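Hi P.,

Sorry for the delay on this. The queue was packed all week, but I finally got your sequence through. Input first:
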Amino acid sequence: MHYTLHQLQVFLKITQTKSITKAAEELHLTQPAVSIQLRNLQDQFEIPLTEVVGRQLYITEFGREIAVAAENILNEVHNINYKTLSFKGILSGKLKISVVSTGKYVMPHFLSEFMNSNSGIELEMDVTNKSKVIQSLQNNEVDFALVSTLPSGISIASEVLLTNKLFLVSHKKITLTPREKIQDYLSNAALIYREEGSATRIAMETFLKQNGIQSKMQLQLTSNEAVKQAVIAGLGLSIMPLIGLKNELENGSINIVPLKKLPLVTNWTLIWLQAKKMSPAASAYLEFIRKEKDHIQQNHFSWIDSF
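Then the structure:
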C-alpha cells in the first residue's frame, strides 16, 4: 500500500464532516481535489470506505475503522513534530479552545500575542453554540472553553478575562417620547431573541420576566451577528452583548436604549475541567493569560468602560 498522509488527512476530514464539499471548505481545497484524494485512497482497498445513498455520503463500517487508524497515525505525526521542536527548545503542541459564538469578539485578542510568540504551537479554535461548547468541555475534547455564564453540574476551574455588559439596543431611527414608558413600549414591540439555550437568550428572558414585560417574539436567530443585522434593519429590538457593537455604536447604526436595571453584567470567563491534566502548551497559555490579561483588557477593551 502507498497511501499518503495527505490522503489520510483528507479522508479523516470527510468522515468528520460526512461531506466532500464541507471537507473541502475546512481543508481549504477544491472539491475535485478532495474527491481525487478519496479515490486514490479507495483504490488501495478492496472494501469500500464510503457509499452514496441518494445524494448522501455515508462512511462504511470498514471506512470508520480506517478513519480511527488514520487519526492515530496523524496524531503520532504531530507528536513527532512536537518532540522535534521540544528538543530544539521551542514550546510546541496543540492548543484546543471552544468558544461561544459572541466570544469571537473576545478570544482572538487573548490569543494573538501568545501565538505570535510561540510558532511551534498549533491552535484549534471552534466557535459554536453554547451547548456544543459545554459538550466538548465535558468530553475533554478541548483544553479551554470561553463562556459568558458558568455551566452547572461540571467541576471546573476558571479565569475571568473581561466584563460582559448587555444592553437594550434598537435601530437608530427608533425614539421614545419623554412620557412613554419603556416597559409599555417593549410589551408591544417586536423583540429579537437568540436561539434556545443561548446565554444571551437566557439573560434576556430573565430580565423581561423579572420586570413583568410580556412581549411578542418577532424573530429568533442563531447568531449574535444575525441579531445585530436584524436590529440595524429595523426589524425589532434586542438585549445584546456590548462587545459586538463597537463599530455600530460608533457609526450610529445602532442605539442603546436607556433602561433601568440595565446593563446586565456577567463575565467572559475562560474555563477548564478541574481534573484536566494540562499539556505544556495549555499550561503555558494559562500562565500567559494570568500574567497578561490586564494588559490585553487595557489595550483592546478599555472602550467598554465608557458605557
